[in-house]
Amino acid sequence: MNEWLLILLMALVTFVPRYLPFALAGKVKLSPTLERALSFVPAAVLTAIIAQSTLVRGGELDVSWYNYHAWSALAAFIVAVLTRKLFLTIGVGLSCFVLLKLIFGT
Amino acid sequence: MTSAARKLFWLGAAETLPLIVAAFPFGIVFGALAQSTDLGFSVALGMSAIVFAGASQFIAITLLAAGTVLPVIVVTVFIVNLRQLLYSANLMHHVEKWPHRWRLVLAFWLTDETFAVVSDRINRHPGAPGSRWFYLGSALAMYGFWQIATVTGYLLGEQLPGLDKWGLDVAMIVAFIGIVVPALQSRADWACAAVAFFAALLTHQWPHQSGLLVSSVIAIGVGLFVSRGASTDE
């Protein structure tokens, strides 16, 4: 397969969804309901990504004790709810992951 | 660039830094994975430089390694990227003040990370001028570090086989948690996030990650429904 052709086509299908609303901004008026719907986008999309990348490991749903990603995510979630601090959330989440790996192995 | 613009540019870069710290291991894993699947160095870097979309790049090399034909890869990447359409539409109201050539360039750099930082900034300072400089700072920082991470991962992958299985993607997960949770303010926000969470788990086996998009749309619908109820109560 031509890898450079693949890259160019990927670039195209990546750029179009990014650019289209930017190009139309100011020309199209969104309804208030649609605008309110769009305000839920970050919470909806990012949470869906978090759920899948945390609990679906290697294509399978993994809710075992050995899912270190899930424990780290839980620790990060608690810190985020309590402190709302991004750096602290990342720090605690990562430390949790490293500790679990060191203590219980891979 | 005026001094106010320069300040905003650097502020954008600085506020993106926690997310760059988190995305960096993800970029390293991409580089290592590209190396382990015998993708050439220039192809791996070319993908990061020309496509610049983390999730799509992972999916593309995974499918490529599995011998998937080109049209299927391209369609899959398109579906995965449809969430960017939602991001971009979310910023529309704000973007209408930007000149067209700025929109063209800044759209290319729209990522989960820059969207998160820019939309957070717009929420905290609605109507503040110079947001395109803030966006540019965030975008260029993210772009630069993504290239460095790709190269680093590719070179490390030669030294440390199996690097792609260390679970470094945990950094991205906890960073996203750090972004989303503080932004959950109303009951509708929490309902939306909870639905997105469980729907994404229920649909994880759907092809081409379409479950991600469908879950998001359902969650947005629930958010709308709950917030409508709240506004009639008041």
Q: What is the terminal separation of chain A in angstroms? A: 36 Å
Portion of residues in beta strands of chain B equals under 5%
Shape call of chain A: extended
Q: How many structural domains does the protein architecture of chain A include?
A: 2
| Rounded Rg of chain A | 20 Å
Cα shape of chain B? globular
Name the average pLDDT of chain A: 90
Q: What do you see in this structure?
A:
The complex is a heterodimer of chains A (106) and B (234). Chain A is mainly alpha-helical and 106 residues long. Chain A folds into two domains: 1-39, no CATH class; 42-106, no CATH class. Chain A is built from five helices and two strands; from the N terminus they run αααββαα. A two-stranded antiparallel ribbon of chain A has the order 1-2. With 234 residues, chain B is mostly helical. Chain B has two domains: 3-183, no CATH class; 185-234, no CATH class. Chain B has helices at 3-36, 41-51, 54-65, 70-95, 100-108, 112-124, 131-159, 170-183, 187-202, 210-233. In chain B, helix 1 (3-36) packs antiparallel against helix 6, helix 4 packs parallel to helix 6 (112-124) and helix 6 (112-124) packs antiparallel against helix 7 (131-159). The N and C termini of chain B lie far apart (46 Å). The chains are: A mainly alpha (106), B mainly alpha (234). Chains A and B meet through helix 1, helix 2, helix 3, helix 4 and helix 5 of A and helix 1, helix 2, helix 3, helix 4 and helix 5 of B.
